[in-house]
Amino acid sequence: MIKTKYLISYLTIFLLMMLSETNFGQTYGKLYTKTEGEQLYGKVTKSFQFSSEEVNSFLNKTEIVLMFNINDNKLFILGDGRKPIYPLIETVNSEEVFRVFSVSLIQELIEKGKSSITYFEKRNTVLTITNGEYLLEYGLPCPPVCP
Q1: DSSP letter at 45?
Q2: Residue 139 in contact with residue 99, Cβ under 8 Å?
Q3: What is 27-142's CATH topology?
Q4: Three-class SS state of 73
Q5: DSSP alpha helices (H): ranges in the chain?
Q6: Among candidate residues 120, 139, 134, the one with its CA nearest the CA of residue 44
Q7: Cα separation of 82 and 133, whole Å?
Q8: Quick one: which of 67, 16, 21, 69 has its CA closest to 46?
Q9: Nearest alpha-carbon partner for 79 in 96, 95, 60
Q10: How confident is the model over 121-145, as pLDDT tens digits?
């Protein structure tokens, strides 16, 4: 009886740890070298250039994620809860799909890339963020995954 209680307690704690990691420790995106990214995702077909300082100002307007989409040759950037960051528009269609990237990975991209310019790009069917010799991809689609 006592062993069963301990087992249930351990399983409950383990389950809670897994749930907290899933909800709070998740990162969205994967860093590649620019060469590796180009081999995987192809050449850039559309690009939007920002100073890395301006991208950092975007990151300061959100806590967990930054998401973006290129639609009708225009770039749209959203923060947590799909709050518009660039351009400053009132609302975004809730069905429009954006790619979600972790703020921490974008910061790491800028630190590793060491370039004063950051690019939001479309490559074939994927969206990437590039700085220097590094590229960030593997962002999740929102919806359905909207952290």
Answers
A1: S
A2: yes
A3: DNA Polymerase III; Chain A, domain 2 (3.10.150)
A4: coil
A5: 2-24, 34-41, 52-59, 103-113
A6: 120
A7: 29
A8: 69
A9: 60
A10: 999 889 999 999 999 998 899 998 7
Encode pLDDT of 13-52 as tens digits. Answer: 433 343 333 344 588 999 999 999 999 999 999 999 999 9
Tokens 């479309």 label which residue?
122
CB 114 within 8 A of CB 130: no
Tokens 């939001």 sit at which residue?
A: 120
pTM of the model: 0.79
- Domain map of the chain by residue range? 27-142
Cα separation, 19 vs 11, whole angstroms: 12
Please, are residues 123 and 46 in contact by the beta-carbon 8 Å criterion?
Answer: no
